[in-house]
Design a protein that fits this description.
The chain is about 35% helix and about 15% strand. The chain has helices at about 20-25, 65-75, 95-100, 115-125, 145-155, 165-170, 205-225, 225-230, 240; strands at about 1-5, 30-35, 50, 60, 80-90, 105-110, 130-135, 190, 195. It is elongated and about 70 Å long. Bound molecules: 1,2-oxazole-5-carbothioamide (JAB).
C-alpha cells in the first residue's frame, strides 16, 4: 500500500518510522510519502491560508495551493482521498478494514478552520473522497487523526501483525466481535498483589476459555458501550449470552 500525506507539519509523522508501521515500511508493505504543503505556495511567505468568505473567526486553507499539491502528488493517478475533519463520517474498525483493501491512500491534513470546500468538490469528480472524523472533538489539525488512521489501517495489512488472529479478535472486528469490545487480558504471574488471574484462564480448557472471553466481552460492552450492546445482532447471542 502507498500512503501519501500532505501537511504543513510533516514532522508530525516521525512516529510512522517506529514500531509496527516502521517495520512495515522497512519491509516494503507500506510506502509512506509525506509532503510539505508549503512547497506549493509560491509567495515569499509560503502562504497557505486566507480569511473566510462570509466572515467569522480563523483562517481557511487556500484551494490553489491544495490543488497544485494534490495534482503533483497523484500525477494523474487515482488514490482514495481521506480528509480528517470533525464534520466527517465516523472512523470505525469497519472503515479501517475497508481502507486496508485500498492500494493507495492520500491523506489531506487540514489546519485552521479547514480546507476550502471546493478542493473536496474538485477531487470528488475524479477520486473517491471521504471526509472522516476520528471522534466528536476538535483537534488543531488533521495530522493526529491521520496518525490514528494510518496505525489502525496499517496494522491490518498482511504480515504487519505478528499473529493475524489478533486482528480477528480485535474489538469491533467484523464477525464474532462485531459491536463488541474485548474483555480483560492477563499474563504472568498468576497472583499479583493479592489479585488472582481468573481460574478458567489457567484451566487449559480452550472451550471454557473462549466462552469466558466472550462473556467478558459482552459484559464490558454492556457496561462501557451500551449503545453497541443494543446493536448486537440477536442471532449471534445464545440463551447464555442473553442472561449476561
Ligand atoms: N475529529 C477530527 S477527525 C478532527 C480533525 C481536525 N479536528 O478534529
Amino acid at each position: 500500500m502507498r500512503l501519501d500525506i500532505i501537511s504543513i507539519f510533516p514532522e508530525y509523522f516521525a512516529p510512522l518510522d517506529v514500531s509496527l508501521i516502521g517495520k512495515a515500511r522497512e519491509r516494503g508493505t507500506l510506502d509512506v510519502r509525506v509532503h510539505q504543503l508549503r512547497d506549493w505556495a509560491h509567495d515569499v511567505h509560503k502562504t497557505v491560508d486566507d480569511t473566510p468568505y462570509g466572515g467569522g473567526p480563523g483562517m481557511v486553507m487556500k484551494p490553489e495551493v491544495w490543488g497544485e499539491a494534490i495534482d503533483d502528488v497523484i500525477e494523474g493517478g487515482s488514490p482514495r482521498m481521506v480528509v480528517p475533519t470533525p464534520s466527517g463520517r465516523p472512523f470505525t474498525q469497519e472503515l479501517a478494514q475497508e481502507l486496508a483493501q485500498e492500494p493507495w491512500l492520500l491523506f489531506a491534513c487540514g489546519r485552521y478552520e479547514g480546507i476550502d470546500s471546493r478542493v473536496m468538490e474538485e477531487y470528488s469528480g475524479r477520486l473517491r473522497v471521504d471526509e472522516v472524523s476520528i471522534g466528536d472533538y476538535v483537534l488543531a489539525g488533521g495530522e493526529v487523526a491521520v496518525l490514528v488512521m494510518v496505525e489502525a489501517v496499517g496494522r491490518l495489512l498482511p504480515g504487519v501483525l505478528g499473529n493475524a488472529q489478533s486482528a480477528v479478535d480485535d474489538s469491533f472486528a467484523p464477525g464474532a466481535m462485531r459491536n463488541l469490545v474485548e474483555g480483560p487480558v492477563y499474563t504472568k504471574p498468576p497472583l499479583w498483589r493479592g489479585h488472582e488471574v481468573p481460574a478458567v484462564l489457567l484451566s487449559g480448557h480452550h472451550g471454557n476459555v473462549a466462552r469466558w472471553r466472550r462473556d467478558e466481552a459482552i459484559r464490558r460492552t454492556v457496561r462501557n458501550r451500551p449503545e453497541l450492546a443494543a446493536a448486537l445482532d440477536p442471532a449471534t447471542l445464545d440463551k447464555h449470552d442473553r442472561k449476561l
